[in-house]
């Protein structure tokens, strides 16, 4: 219904989504507390359909192709840092500049890589995933609506 | 060194309590008593507000007092906490925040139970969430106790006990009256105060050394009596292989534990969408990263200006290094500047403790009411009654934390938090990741993953040198120590993952394809999210 608008919407505005998720219906506490079972049964097919769709596989692929290597990389770098600090304190004590030694630099390097990866993830999600995911969200909710009636 | 700086500190702290109580009353005037309101604050906080609140929930007294104190005492080895606490947020950002926001409603168990048979999974995840929360609470209570002991000098034994009781009572009031909305605003106020205090102290330390970080390090190394070794790893954890494995175990627990902390997970439900959850984590990473960088400066600053001996004399585990540093930076004991600065730092630390305690109490009362009570009862009640249970649960959790806080008062706060993280990483993280990413995961796998991490973690702590067998233990008289490490993470985290895998393999149940599809589609797109 409002799908035609989705092109000119600001994607980084959370308030927009707050409205979108409600679909113009009032989400009362009681409804939110226990979704009617009918919705769940019909919804299940919809979710299977969406899961098998090429668009969803693409979103999932993009997410996994970024997050998988990134998690492995930062965990490996962090574990390497901790293990080196414990098993080779001599190496970490090697002076670099003045009182600053290799261990100090490695520790600050952890801070730096954390900030960089955060930036990279957010950028990737915003440019490569958000738009497609929102389309899929409309799609899934529209299908569920078409099938399940009111809920 | 009591008396003159005691009064301003108590006045400032009283002001904070008054302001937060006012927030609580004002907020609860508008409350409707729905579960949505009580657990999630109406889900309409902005990413920036929630980012500050996340940072407020996370930057506990353990960081402010404990980490700086550890760095002041053992130098570089204390830095591991700072690094681990920050890197952990990448796990939260990449794997947990958005997906949990999309799939769940109030608690960790919501995410898991969506795919599984609800009752056993909820009971398991609820139990482990409450355990983690109580451990974390004890750490905060101990921090409050140390602070008061410092304020009131040697005469403070009774005052210390009363502080722990007072903190407990206040947090119960915040949580049971104000719910998530009041708790979030308290976190925001506290995060601003804490960051402001930390920035001020850091600037003063750097000014003292004319902006020369190198000289700060050299002075700290010289004053410590260890020389260059103070700036390199090994002082605390380099003695033998047991200590080294302890260090690695702690490192693992820190980085994997954050994503399993119930009070952090429940924060993602206070924003409207997954995208808002992501942006609040980015805010949090920025604030927390800056904060931990400053704790390093404060730790080395305390070593250089106060000296490890004076720190140790005040509190054996270093919890009071930062207040002592403030006293010195302001001009020393007896001076007006020192008195004022000390009072500010002490009040900020108190505010920190109160706010974190309120956040954790809220999360654990949600676990009790929404997961445990709702599953153990025959029929689910109305939302109204669940909130009533949550309020009562907040009182119960508060009493338990007060009791344990009185018992554990001599342990280092950062170290206690390390234990809470180990339990969170062992019991909560495996089940959460498996349910989000593993197609074949089953109910038995979920239940085994929780108990397979929780039970080893708790048992190993009970058998560790923390509880018995050494002069520094909780029960120095007894000796049933069998496990050599202080932190169980190295063993219990893999066990949690292994148990979940084994439980799934041996389970006769066929994984429900459709419900997995629902979890996967919902988690990545936000379809059907509340």
TrEMBL record, chain A:
Any coiled-coil regions, as ranges: none
Cited InterPro entries: DUF485 (IPR007436)
Keywords, ordered alphabetically: Membrane, Transmembrane, Transmembrane helix
Domain of life: Bacteria
Transmembrane intervals: 66-84, 96-122
Keyword presence, Metal-binding: no
Pfam families: DUF485
Name the UniProt record assigns to this protein: Membrane protein
TrEMBL record, chain B:
Transmembrane regions listed in the UniProt entry: 6-27, 52-73, 79-100, 121-139, 159-177, 189-209, 247-269, 281-306, 340-366, 387-407, 413-434, 446-467, 487-505
Top-level taxonomy: Bacteria, Bacillati, Actinomycetota, Actinomycetes, Kitasatosporales
Gene Ontology cellular-component annotations: plasma membrane
Gene3D superfamilies per the UniProt record, alphabetical: Sodium/glucose cotransporter
Protein name: Acetate permease
Recorded topology in the membrane: Multi-pass membrane protein
Record keyword Membrane present: yes
Keywords: Cell membrane, Membrane, Symport, Transmembrane, Transmembrane helix, Transport
Location in or out of the cell: Cell membrane
One Pfam family from the record: SSF
Chief location: membrane
Keyword Glycoprotein in annotation: no
């Amino acid at each position: 219904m409002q799908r035609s608008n989705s092109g000119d919407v600001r994607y980084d505005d959370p308030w927009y989504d707050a409205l979108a998720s409600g679909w113009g219906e009032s989400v009362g506490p009681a409804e939110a507390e226990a979704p009617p079972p009918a919705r769940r049964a019909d919804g299940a097919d919809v979710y299977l359909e969406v899961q098998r769709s090429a668009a969803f596989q693409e979103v999932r692929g993009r997410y996994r192709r970024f997050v998988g290597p990134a998690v492995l990389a930062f965990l490996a770098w962090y574990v390497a840092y901790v293990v080196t600090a414990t098993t080779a304190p001599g190496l970490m004590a090697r002076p670099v500049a003045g009182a600053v030694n290799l261990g100090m630099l490695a520790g600050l390097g952890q801070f730096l890589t954390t900030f960089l990866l955060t930036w990279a993830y957010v950028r990737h999600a915003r440019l490569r995933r958000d738009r497609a995911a929102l389309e899929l969200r409309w799609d899934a909710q529209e299908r569920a609506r078409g099938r399940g009636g009111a809920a | 060194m009591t008396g003159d700086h005691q009064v301003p500190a108590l006045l400032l702290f009283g002001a904070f309590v008054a302001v937060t109580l006012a927030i609580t009353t004002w907020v609860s005037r508008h409350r409707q008593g729905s579960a949505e309101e009580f657990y999630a604050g109406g889900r309409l906080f902005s990413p920036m507000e929630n980012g500050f609140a996340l940072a407020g929930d996370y930057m506990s007294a353990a960081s402010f007092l404990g980490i700086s104190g550890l760095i002041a005492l053992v130098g570089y080895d204390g830095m591991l906490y700072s690094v681990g606490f920050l890197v952990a947020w990448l796990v939260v950002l990449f794997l947990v925040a958005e997906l949990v926001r999309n799939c769940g409603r109030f608690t960790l168990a919501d995410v898991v139970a969506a795919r599984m048979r609800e009752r056993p999974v909820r009971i398991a995840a609820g139990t482990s969430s409450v355990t983690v929360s109580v451990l974390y609470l004890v750490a905060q209570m101990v921090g409050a106790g140390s602070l008061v002991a410092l304020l009131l000098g040697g005469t403070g034994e009774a005052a210390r006990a009363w502080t722990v009781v007072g903190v407990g009572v206040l947090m119960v009031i915040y949580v049971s009256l104000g719910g998530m909305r009041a708790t979030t605003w308290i976190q925001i106020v506290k995060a601003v105060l804490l960051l402001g205090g930390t920035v001020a102290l850091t600037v003063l330390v750097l000014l003292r050394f004319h902006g020369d970080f190198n000289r700060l390090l050299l002075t700290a190394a010289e004053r410590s009596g260890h020389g260059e070794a103070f700036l390199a790893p090994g002082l605390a954890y380099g003695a033998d292989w047991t200590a080294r494995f302890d260090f690695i175990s702690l490192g693992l627990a820190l980085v994997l534990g954050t994503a399993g902390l119930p009070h952090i997970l429940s924060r993602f439900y206070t924003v409207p969408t997954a995208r808002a959850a992501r942006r609040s984590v980015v805010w949090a990473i920025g604030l927390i990263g800056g904060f931990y960088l400053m704790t390093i400066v404060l730790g080395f600053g305390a070593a250089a200006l106060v000296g490890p001996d004076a720190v140790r004399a005040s509190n054996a585990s270093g919890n009071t290094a930062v207040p002592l540093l403030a006293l010195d930076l302001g001009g020393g004991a007896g001076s007006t500047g020192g008195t004022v600065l000390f009072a500010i730092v002490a009040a900020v630390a108190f505010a920190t403790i109160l706010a974190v305690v309120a956040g954790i109490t809220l999360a654990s009362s949600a676990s009790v009411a929404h997961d445990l009570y709702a599953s153990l009862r025959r029929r689910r009640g109305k939302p109204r009654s669940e909130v009533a249970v949550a309020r009562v649960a907040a009182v119960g959790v508060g009493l338990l934390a007060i009791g344990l806080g009185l018992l554990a008062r001599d342990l280092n706060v950062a170290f206690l938090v390390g234990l809470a993280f180990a339990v969170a990483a062992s019991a909560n993280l495996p089940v959460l990741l498996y349910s989000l990413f593993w197609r074949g995961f089953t109910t038995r796998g979920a239940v085994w993953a929780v108990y397979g991490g929780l039970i080893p973690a708790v048992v190993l702590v009970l058998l560790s040198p923390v509880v018995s067998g050494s002069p520094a233990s909780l029960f120095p008289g007894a000796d049933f120590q069998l496990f050599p490490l202080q932190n169980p993470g190295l063993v219990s985290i893999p066990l949690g993952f292994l148990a979940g895998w084994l439980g799934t393999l041996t389970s006769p149940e066929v994984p429900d394809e459709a419900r997995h599809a629902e979890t996967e589609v919902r988690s990545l797109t936000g379809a059907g999210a509340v």
